[in-house]
């Protein structure tokens, strides 16, 4: 797997680091948003690292990046506000690197899921979020009303956001499906293959 290092600027000029893998004969593209920076989250964390390695083999050109203040990204933690612009800039960066015909998936885990759900970008073909707390997102009403597909993956034993709360908060959303992985916690330890399979299935949907 050939990994290219990339740097790009957020809306306020903050320089962010990322990594991209260009899939041969790509059928789609994906931006991956990582968990909470204040709790050890980075683009290499857990499920994000697993998906970054798995998606190119599924024909998906993939970009992962570090939010401001994480590792070699400039800036500092902004409590989930400026980080929304970081995610949007990542979408712009990937969009510029791929053919216009490729559907672009915006995905994230935990805090990263909320950041993904904060980006209402015309290039995004769908959102796939894993255990989003639904607390940091800034555009839930707008995203919820969007007719493009959304898939929410939850752990049955998540102690950060319960499946019941997520169901309630997304009940009015359009084109939204929820999937609960039995026995899984917020960290999906030992369950990454099931999460990846759910993401792959959603990709099949947006690639039709």
Outline the secondary-structure elements.
Elements: E1 4-9, E2 15-21, E3 28-33, H1 46-54, E4 60-65, H2 82-97, E5 104-109, H3 111-116, E6 124-130, H4 140-145, E7 150-155, H5 163-169, E8 176-181, H6 192-206
Parallel strand pairs: 3-4, 3-5, 5-6, 6-7, 7-8
Antiparallel strand pairs: 1-2, 2-4
Explained architecture:
The chain has a single domain (4-206), classed as Alpha/Beta hydrolase fold, catalytic domain (Rossmann fold). The chain is built from six helices and eight strands, in the order βββαβαβαβαβαβα. The chain has helices at residues 46-54, 82-97, 111-116, 140-145, 163-169, 192-206; strands spanning 4-9, 15-21, 28-33, 60-65, 104-109, 124-130, 150-155, 176-181. It is globular, with a radius of gyration of 15 Å. The model has no long low-confidence stretch (mean pLDDT 96).
């Amino acid at each position: 797997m050939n990994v290219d290092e990339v740097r790009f600027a957020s809306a306020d000029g903050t320089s962010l680091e990322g990594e991209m893998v260009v899939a041969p004969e790509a059928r789609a593209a994906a931006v991956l948003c990582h968990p909470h920076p204040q709790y050890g989250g980075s683009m290499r964390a857990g499920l994000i690292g697993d998906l970054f390695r798995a998606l190119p083999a599924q024909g998906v050109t993939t970009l992962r990046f570090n939010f401001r203040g994480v590792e070699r990204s400039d800036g500092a933690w902004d409590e989930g506000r400026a980080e929304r612009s970081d995610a949007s800039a990542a979408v712009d960066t990937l969009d510029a690197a791929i053919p216009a015909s490729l559907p672009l998936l915006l995905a994230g885990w935990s805090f990263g899921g909320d950041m993904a759900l904060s980006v209402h970008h015309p290039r995004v073909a769908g959102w796939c979020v894993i255990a989003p707390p639904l607390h940091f997102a800034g555009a839930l009403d707008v995203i919820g009303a969007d007719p493009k597909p959304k898939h929410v993956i939850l752990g049955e034993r998540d102690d950060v956001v319960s499946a019941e709360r997520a169901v309630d908060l997304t009940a009015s959303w359009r084109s939204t499906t929820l999937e609960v992985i039995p026995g899984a916690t917020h960290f999906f330890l030992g369950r990454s293959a099931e999460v990846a399979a759910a993401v792959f299935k959603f990709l099949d949907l947006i690639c039709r």
